[in-house]
Each structure stands twice: as C-alpha cells, then as structure tokens.
Amino acid sequence: MEARDLFEEIRPLFGILRSFSTRAQNMRLGQIGRLRVISTPPLGYSLGVRALRSFHAARPDVSVSYDVRRLENVVDTVQTGLADIGLVLNEEKLETVNSELLTRSQMVVLMPTNDPLAAETSITPKMLAGRSVIGIDQASQLGRLVSRGFVQGGGSYRPSIEVRYCQTAAALVAEGMGVTVVDPYSAEPYLCRGLVTRPFSPACEVRALILTRKGVPHSGLLLNFVEELRRQLPIGTPKPHHPPGY
C-alpha cells in the first residue's frame, strides 16, 4: 500500500524526466535552443539571410539572434562568446578565433544592364577610364583589394565618390550614379533592380569565412546552420573540404 502511494506521488516525475530527455535529444540534434549569428554586411544581407530563412523554417522552435556589424566587431563578439558564429569576408590571418573557409569568389563590376560594358565578358581597369567609379574606402580590406587590382591592371584608381561599405556603392549604382567594383555578395540584392555584374580583371579573390570561438565545441544548432550556409551557395560554387564534425 505504501509502495503504491509512493509511486503515485512520484509518477509525475517520470513525465518530467521524459520531457527533459526529449528536450536534450532535440538540443543535440539542433532542433531547439538559441543560435547567435553575427556577420559583416556583404554576407549578412545575402547568403546569411537565405541560410537563416531555410534554417528557421525547418526549426521554428529555435530562437535566433542575427546581427550585422563591421569586421572588428564580428571578430570581438565571436571571441568573447557573445555570438556562436560569425560570417566575414577576410584576407588577413585571425589569431583570436577559429576561421573556416566557406567559399572563394571574385570581385565584380556592378553596372546598369544597358551599360555598354555589360556586353563584355570581363572588365579591366582601362575600360573604366573616364567613367564615374564609386570606390570603396581604402582603409578597408576590400578597398585596398580593388586599388591593387587597378594598379595590377595598368589603370588609375580615382573614384569620383568613395564610400565605406560595398552595399552603399551598390545602392548608388542603382541610382544611376556610376559603376563600382564590389564583392558579389554585396551586388546580389541589386541584380533584380536593373543591374548586372561582370568579372573584374585582373581577378581579385575574396574569401568568405566562418568564425567560431576557440576551445568551444560546436553545438548541433551551429553545425546545422553551417550546413545550411553551404547548401545556399550557388550551384557550381567550390565547397572546400572541412574537417569531420564541423
């Protein structure tokens, strides 16, 4: 009798334990929990958004924090553990965080579809001579990359307007203020607005990287989001080998 009474008292605990067990399993599988993502603007307004849309549609119970900041802010936020994953375009070595290559791409020239240069298969600096070129601040990595490309291509880099962000340059091109050399991610949102891209020559490579905190295991949510990022890469984009478990 006493045993039966005791069982009736503790029976609710079995349901709670089953609930905890199910929740723990779902967390391991990356179906519930919280994911904190931070990105620089080029990836944060293009690839990251597409990946987040698919990721969250398949996991509606997951809470997501999604922020877009400058490169140094992204690195600091990942390093201090305030974000689980960072997305950046970066050519320099990062000592304070783990970095994993997501994909490589090339800088492009963004211009109106009716621009005469749109008939070309690639655009050189000399072809842009005399044109209104919207440039990227040379204090930034991408700005320096474009400047070196102009020098290597035998041209003179003298932008008529200089901006800090590639997205700003793309927006000005959309308003008919000239052409620009930007990363393909920043150009992507404007390709449905009467603009086209052509490869910039000489080729200027940009690397999209995934940043994570050193010494911290990757959660199921993080691994699932990384997989979604890779799925959202355009067909034919090189997908570099990555270690098992990442």
From TrEMBL:
Signal peptide: none annotated. One of its GO terms (molecular function) is sequence-specific DNA binding. GO terms for biological process: positive regulation of gene expression. SUPFAM superfamilies: Periplasmic binding protein-like II. Residues 32-233 form the LysR substrate-binding domain. InterPro entries: LysR_subst-bd. Coiled coil: none annotated. This is LysR substrate-binding domain-containing protein. It comes from Puniceibacterium antarcticum.
